[in-house]
Amino acid sequence: MNVSIIGTGYVGLSTAAGLASKGHRVICVDKDPSKINAVKAGKSHFYEEGIEEALAMALSKGLLEATMDTAYAVKNSDITFICVGTPSDDSGKINLDYIKDASAEVGIAMKGNQGHVVVVKSTVVPGTTETVILPILQKYSKNFGLCMNPEFLREGKALEDFLHPDRIVVGELDRKSGDALSKLYEGFGAPVIRTKLSAAEMIKYASNVFLASRISMINELGNICKKLGIDVYDVANAIGRDKRIGPHFLEAGAGFGGSCFPKDVSALQHRAEEIGCETGMMEQILKTNASQRRVLVELLKKKTSIKGKKIAVLGLAFKEDTDDIRESPAIDIIEMLKKEGASVYAYDPKAADNMKRIYPEVTYCSVADALKDAEACLILAKWKEFSSLTDRDFAAMKGRIIIEAKKVLDASKVKDFEGICW
Ligand code: UGA
Question: For the chain, which residues make up each domain, given as ranges?
């Protein structure tokens, strides 16, 4: 099929690369010329495993184009995915400006097309596709189809998740729209769940809120474990074998970050309040998450006074395998360290340049330079390379305080370290 994709963030670009690898012809659209030029050269403006190889392959097969011209992309495709950002404003309420603009442009471009299908992939609170996006499209066009198709892509593994989904959710305005989108997903080998637009929107939020709740729950349990001298990972391993619980998203740490969980929990909470529903659980998920960063710094402060001391921080991205630092635990932790008068030396395999924009005063360096003469070392993300650190690396430190926020160090290679919850 011929597909156009509005927005080349990690969702749009992973969708483009994934659909092209399945043989569909894809046209990417973005307002930013540098992003479009990058796609044309088979490059991604963010780090994502396997994406550049997939883009290069799609270009070489003539299955991928990139343009700033929405009208051209829509006119030359049968289906248009809207994958623009839906950030939160300061109160946590979803900001629909980008998606409204994109919808208007697609609506204008569809004029005269017959049976074009618009698919909302951006995360929008329940009701938005039908009550906000549909009227905008209808203002300019008629005879089009409309679907809401939430994404469940993890950054860092987005392409893999796109190609091997657990399920595909097709929210449809009518049967014909849903049929067209379901056809695009033939051959993915995953169950397709067809439902109404608002239910598809809710499924996305419910998934993220549920996953976020598991993280806050395991962190709360982890804090109790730590006080009792128990390793929460042993507990997680055992409870995760109960089929009713399952093994995933039970890694305790410094709390969740990223562009999705914090924003999505807040946005649903905000919407729930508007319709008079209580959200005590969601409030607590965010509260527990915020305090988990403090738990790590408090643990460090119990061991040493950090004023004027060099502290090594390894891992700045909100998690491993990405250069994304949005809502990263490292941002709050560095802020606390700075307030306490520490001098921060930081390393991340991919995210240092992004963190530099927030904290230019931090020293960004190699692991060896960060550890040299450091009083303490905090390991905040689970980058694979940290698991090969040994006592020899840590021997260069002045103090011997090593605290990991995710279980990453290899206990057979490093002695004397502890975890935030173990
Ligand atoms: C998340 C969801 O996993 C995706 O399904 C969803 O599509 C995406 O949000 C989105 O809404 O677009 P992502 O934010 O990329 O994906 O990353 P995750 O791997 O889910 O991790 C989120 C945060 O939770 C990270 O900070 C991670 O370190 C933390 N986490 C995750 C834990 O602290 N413990 C865990 O057990 C798992």
Answer: 2-195, 210-421
For ligand 1, atom 17, name the residue with the nearest CA.
Answer: 154
- Say yes or no to pLDDT of 114 above 90: no
Q: List residues bridging with 64 in a β-sheet.
A: 26
Identity of the residue numbered 23: G
Three-state helix/strand/coil letters over 363-378: EECCHHHHHCCCCEEE
- What residues pair up with 26 in beta bridges, in sequence order? 3, 64
> Pick from 341, 295, 334: which is nearest to 317 by CA?
334
Q: What angle do CA 133, 138, 141 make, to 5 degrees?
A: 125
Domain 2-195: CATH class, spelled out: alpha beta
Confidence band of 183 (pLDDT split at 50, 70, 90): very high
Virtual torsion, Cα 180, 186, 192, 195, nearest 10 deg: 0
Residues 6+ apart with CB under 8 A from 1: 24, 25, 78, 79, 183, 184
Residue 90 has pLDDT above 90, yes or no: no
CATH superfamily, region 210-421: NAD(P)-binding Rossmann-like Domain (3.40.50.720)
Longest dimension (CA), the chain: 71
Ligand 1 atom nearest 257 alpha carbon:
26
Q: How many Å lie between the centroid of ligand 1 and the Cα of residue 123?
A: 15
Q: Per-residue pLDDT tens for 352-391?
A: 999 999 999 999 999 999 999 999 999 999 999 999 999 9
E strand or H helix at 118, and its extent? strand 117-120
**What is the DSSP secondary structure assignment for residue 385, as one 8-state letter?**
G
pLDDT of residue 191: 97
Does the active-site annotation cover 260?
A: yes
Per the CB < 8 A criterion, the answer to whether 253 and 420 are in contact is yes
Query: Do 2-195 and 210-421 fold alike per CATH?
Result: yes
Q: Report residue 388 CA to chain centroid gap.
A: 26
> From CA 94, how far away is CA 87, in angstroms rounded?
6
Tokens of 340: 């306490």
Burial class (CB in 10 A: 0-12, 13-18, 19+), 294: middle
Please state the atom number of ligand 1 nearest to the C-alpha of residue 11.
Answer: 12
pLDDT at 88: 86
Evaluate: CB of 317 within 6 angstroms of ligand 1: no
- Which is catalytic among the residues 28, 260, 377, 421? 260
How many helices (H) does the chain have, and how many strands (E)? Answer: 17, 14
